[in-house]
Amino acid sequence: MKLALKLLFRELRNGDVMTLALAMVLSVATVTGISLFIDRLQASFELQSATLLAADGVVRSSKKLPNEWQLKADESGLNTANRAWFSTMVFTEAGLQLSQVSAVTKAYPLRGEYLIDTQLFGTGFVSDRGPAAGEVWVSSRLASLLEVEIGDDIQIGEADFRVTSYLVRDPGSSASAFAIAPRAVINWQDLDKTQVIQPGSRVRYALLMAGDADLLQEMQEWVTPKLNENQQWRSPRAGGRGIGATINRAESFLLLAGTLAVVMAGVAMALASNRYVKRHLAQVAVMKTLGATPKKIASILTWQLVSIFIFGSLVGLLLGWSVQAFIAYSLEALLSTALPEPGLGKIWLGVLTGFTSLVAFCLPLMTRLLTVSPLSVLQPMGRLEGKTLLLYVFGFIGMFALMVIYTKGFLLPILMVLSILIVSVLVAGIGFVLFKLGRQFTSGATSGWQIGLAALHRRLQSNLFQLLVFTLIIMLVLILTGVRSNLISDWQSQLPEGAANHYLFNIQQEDVARLQGMMSTLEIEESDWYPMVLGRVTQINQKGADELFGKGKEKPEMMSRELNLTWTDTLGVDNEILEGVFNPLENGFSIESKAAEEANVELGDEITLLIGGREYTQKVTSIRRVDWSSMRPNFYLILPKTILSDFPTNYITSVHVANEHKQAFYQGMSDYPTVSLLNVGDLIGQIQLIIAQVSQAIQLLLGFIVASGALVLVASIRASLDERLEEGALLRTLGASKSLIQQAMLVEFGFLGVFAGFIAALAAEACLFGLQVYLFELSASFHPMLWLLGPVLGFVIVTSIGLFAGRSVLKVAPMRMLQAL
After folding, report:
1. Cα dist. 533→563, 564, 571 in Å?
2. Cα 683 from Cα 173, distance rounded (Å)
3. 110 near 55, Cβ under 8 Å?
4. How far from 781 is each of 384, 490, 494, 769, 773, CA to CA, in Å?
5. How many CA atoms, within 13 angstroms, populate the side-chain half-sphere of residue 115?
6. CB of 756 within 8 A of CB of 467?
7. Which residue from 33, 201, 528, 559 has the least number of CB within 10 angstroms?
8. pLDDT, tens digit, 9 for 90 and up, residues 781-793
9. Is the pTM of this model over 0.70?
10. DSSP designation for 386
């Protein structure tokens, strides 16, 4: 051990062991920092999305829930609360207004906070409790419609309440977004006093739970088999398409950054490990000639690698922890709250990355060192290059396994491997042609640019490898840049300009024309108007949900709740027929494509609906793709008018209300007290906040990954440093000046950088296309800035680092180098 450490410290002066140690540190630090930060940010997203439900888990039902369920949750150690909400008329001396009333227990909300105010339409301040018994909090719109102020009394059912605050935000209101009129909140103790809930009343109940994730999982597993068709389990991850889809997209962005970091760490370790092992070939030869046995050599090399592993892991963990803490601290102002602390279990991913890299890239060659003869070691290095293929095979198998663990799936790793293989072939082909063409201009090279171009062809194999390395690094930087700026802005731009920010529903047919006239007067853009009737899917092909999907199993959303059904003569612009034909004059249902996929429904299948106590069975005649981001009303099922015309209907539409028209719009809506109005501007703002968080996070992560890339560039240049030193010494012996050699190096690295940047831009554009269309489900777009940024970035990075890493070529005296040959 002492001999191993003595030799290790001696080699620190040569720089190769230091390069390997730094590669180890950066690989561990990068993966540790990113994985810990992703863990914190995902926990933050979970916590933020939990505020939309006011809990970590919720059981919702159209009937009162069994008391034993709450007792079970309480006994499990979970915090619990109850909420019930219903629509009813609220009365004052000035008039009446349909309102959505929520009754909540003292512990509500378990996640998130109330915002209330003492001023109409105020921004609100945090309240740590709900209304006391006998009190009511009303939204500013409801107060305006009822012409009441703080201190006035209103009547809900048979009970009177005192208005004590204006409700700005109820953290759980989005869980029932399309069931709300102007809102009011009362205490749970006052629910029975109102006598509003009678047999047949439409009421929704919720048991809210929060606490340890394992306890919550156990509760979910216990209660799920007991759920009937009118009950459902909700959690932040399973709670809807809007925020839930945004959180999943955000997670994909960050996992992409993590996957690229793993690839970067693998490249750095591959180069550093290869250089490290090559330098030990001569050392092993000398030791064998002095009588060292393979066992002794194995012991020395093992202790050296273990020392590097321990040093790299400890320093890398410390650096990774510090970086993620700094990023989290930097984001606190943006998030308005501190991120949750990361789980310590994530640090093992960084250690595992370092260990896998060290073993995968060093072990195969280290085994060769034990059996190679001194004579073969003293052969030219070119004879050894072809035998290093096994090294990279083992290394990239290890990297692929780590990527699978890191992304918890095969899609991203497979995409990355395929991208690297395609880029490798592309780089090899283009590089070979360009370097061959460059040779045509270097005959009788006397100038710096000719010598530089000649060097590209002379070191063809190593330059092709360096071109591949540079291309991959620049490609990763461009992809991250594209994800951070272009993909995020592409997603935001696909929220149409002037997208609806208010939904109007519960509109009676006689009010439609009057409301359209008001919109026209105020120059407010409106979408289509759709009639709505509630119904439930009970069977598919004469089979119920339990038979199709298993009793107690999670059901498709289409069969787990009542649906809003509609009819229309023409499909909206955000509906596209994928299969079949939409004919409103013929019998048959039109189903949304994702709902059909989730419920395994195909064209021609039969769907049975229960509407108002009557059953209707018809075949699926068309399948539609729906753009849910259009902010227009859309439906899972569109029915023939002949079915729904017999039922009482109300209408729904969406409108975009500009800030300058809001006051007039709200005043105009006061003439329609039965119409429910939903402002989704806050929901859009919350989605955009999450996007902003992801954008900022990727921007900071980008700098850390570029630091790893810089080490890759230095390691790749050091791989050909001996040959460069010999070449520089010969040129200077023949009379070449330092400026001529420096100019030749500038041309060589400059061309390498420009070529790599151009190919990287091409590959990054292709990768971004795949990510846009297939992973993030966005429309494809062209990114012209990448084509400028790639070559410029390549030239600047490769020449600056190349000249820095190769500065010893200009410093070492020619005589000293020639004596060493």
Report:
1. 8, 6, 18
2. 11
3. yes
4. 46, 8, 11, 7, 9
5. 14
6. yes
7. 201
8. 788 888 999 999 8
9. no
10. G
